[in-house]
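The material for today's practical consists of a large collection of protein records. There is nothing in a record beyond a sequence line and a structure line. Backbone structure tokens are a discrete shorthand for how the chain folds in space. Nothing more is needed to start thinking about how sequence determines fold. As an example, a complete record with its sequence and its structure tokens follows.
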Amino acid sequence: ALAGAIGWQATYAAAYLPLAPRTVPSVDTCPPGRSIALLNINVYQDNRDFARTLALVERVDADVVLFLETDRAWVEALAPLRKRYRYAGAIP
């Protein structure tokens, strides 16, 4: 029974080995216009380097941006991004 369980679990683990076929295309094989760029930033509430964060968002020019650990000050500092990212939500 143990050997059967190990074999069963091995079939799931095999998908993560380097030689396993990819189920999601890489950036190199994705057709033009069929990909999106995501940016996830953990800003830490004590961090107040708003300008540097805004510059990073502008430089990366991602399609979707997610900010974690924001507070009211961060929501206010990120307000200029609402022009570019019209569909936004904020829960500080």
Summary: The helical segments are 2-13, 50-60, 72-77. The chain has a mean pLDDT of 89. Residues 2-13 form the longest helix (12 residues). The chain is about 30% helix and 10% strand.
